[in-house]
Amino acid sequence: MNSMNDTGVVADPASGQTSRTHRLRGLAVTGFIATLAAMVATTLAAALAQAVGVDFEVPDGGETIPLPGFAVVTGFFSVVGIVIAVALLRWSARPAERFVWTAVSLTAISLVPPLLSGADTAATTALLGLHLVPAAVMIPTLARSLRTRTD
Question: Can you tell me where the transmembrane regions are (predicted)?
Answer without folding.
Answer: 27-49, 69-91, 98-116, 122-143
